[in-house]
Amino acid sequence: MNDTKKHAAGRLISQALSFTAVLILLLSAILVLSEPAPAEGAGSTETITLPAPALKGTLSVEAAIAGRRSVRGFSDAAITLRQLSQLLWAAQGITSEDGTRRAAPSAGAKYPMEVFVVAGKVEGLPAGVYRYVPKGHSLALLKKGDVREALCAEALSQQSVASAPASIVIAGVYERTRGKYGERAERYVHIEVGAVAENVYLEAESLGLATVFMGAFSDGGVREVVGTGEAEPLGIMPVGARS
Q1: In terms of Cα–Cα distance, which of 202, 225, 213, 227 is closest to 68?
Q2: 3-class DSSP assignment, residue 54
Q3: Torsion sign across C-alpha atoms 69, 236, 242, 142
Q4: CATH class of the domain whose range is 37-240
């Protein structure tokens, strides 16, 4: 093979290698973008494994439905980590052995919900803001310290948020559902947050606790206090024992 042919062959090999490298990079980017975007703090290295959820409660479903009320007055008593674990499992816990199904129904199984906890008085859990991680049933620490008063201020000073031992903040990432359902995604996400909230209501009743769903708050303020990232705040549910 003469030098000209050698150089031509070399260029072809170099171009092929460059094309392959670009293709690998593009495929990697596609795979990353196809994954559900985690909320801010999702990569926290400080995690707390929650107690395993119980699958048998003290009340029947019918009794929990009959007794459910929206409660805004809470006692000063702390809730336990086990109780919080049960509430979070009811909201978004894994319910299938293969890890593909959760406690609340989701359009297309896209699971746009992100659940956060603003903890002030939870036995066995330092005060702070946490993100619930369904896979592994654990909490990822986002912020240290009691921010209940700050969250209360962003919730139009509804004092239940400050007095309850903890609040569950439900947020949604619309893009996870929009990729499949387009313009109807917003409707489906809003339906889903209702299902999550009702699960928390009924679980709270079963545990002898109380809660209320709040939709009146500053979206940007709650996002900043909690650190929800791209997830849009959709509801706040303070939880605790009735006063």
Answers
A1: 202
A2: coil
A3: positive
A4: alpha beta
Task: Report d(CA 223, CA 147) in Å as an integer.
Answer: 13
Helix (H, G, I), strand (E, B) or coil at 210: strand
- Two tokens, residue 218: 């500053």
Q: Both tokens of residue 195?
A: 């299902």
User: Burial, 106: exposed, middle or buried (Cβ in 10 Å; 0-12, 13-18, 19+)?
Assistant: buried
What are the residue boundaries of the structural domains of the chain, listed by start?
1-35, 37-240
Query: Which pTM value belongs to this model?
Result: 0.82
pLDDT digits (tens, 9 = 90+) for 22-40: 343 343 433 333 344 445 4
Q: What is the pLDDT of residues 121-131, one digit of tens each?
A: 999 999 999 99
Sign of the Cα torsion 64, 67, 68, 73 reads negative
Specify whether the CB–CB gap between 222 and 152 falls below 8 A. no
Quickly list DSSP for 62-122: HHHHHH--B---B-SPPEEHHHHHHHHHHHH-B-STTS--BSS--GGG---EEEEEEESSE
Q: Locate 165 and state its tokens.
A: 């031992």
